[in-house]
Amino acid sequence: MKPKTVVIVEDDERLQKQLIKILESAPDIKCLYVLSSAEEALVQIPQNAPDVVLMDINLPGMSGIDCLAELGAQLPKTEIVMLTAYEEEDNIFRSLKAGASGYLLKSSRADVLLDAIRDVHSGGAPFSSHIARKVVQYFQSEKQIASDNDKLSPREREILNLIATGYVYKEAAEKLGISSETVRTYVKRICVKMHVRSRAEAISKYRAR
To answer: Which domains does the chain have, with CATH numbers?
Structure first.
């Protein structure tokens, strides 16, 4: 069976050696070469079109996420798994939006890394368990926000939209032909329905959707 070809993009020499050793221990996986920067990756990887790329996020110069976006456009069949030392939510979702096929911590065990390469090659999307949990929590939060917003009546949504765009109570009242006190009452109901304690929190949650 043809081995799965892998290219490593990582600037830390110690980690480079560790990753090479791990890949060489698997007969069904072949490490083609190691690169130290995104700039090198954009030049060399398209020439070989490996099955999988292990990409460090925090590279010198161009970031791994920006490199991912460019490589993905050139090599749609190459699976790119991001490697990171930290569980940073912003980077997790930036990587996914840029087209990452998986996201692993550099501290992952050797067997986890090898299984991730096999998994992504067969169509899976490998994530470290802690990162997978963050992804689940994110979408659960998004679902809850949508559910809370859907509880609002058309008038409540109208008022919340005005407040969120900068209207004060008096201006919103004049625009809708109601009293400022009525607007204030609506905002209180909105806070109750959205499970928040203040107008600012309601606006933040409304915008998050």
So the answer is: 4-136 (3.40.50.2300), 151-208 (1.10.10.10)
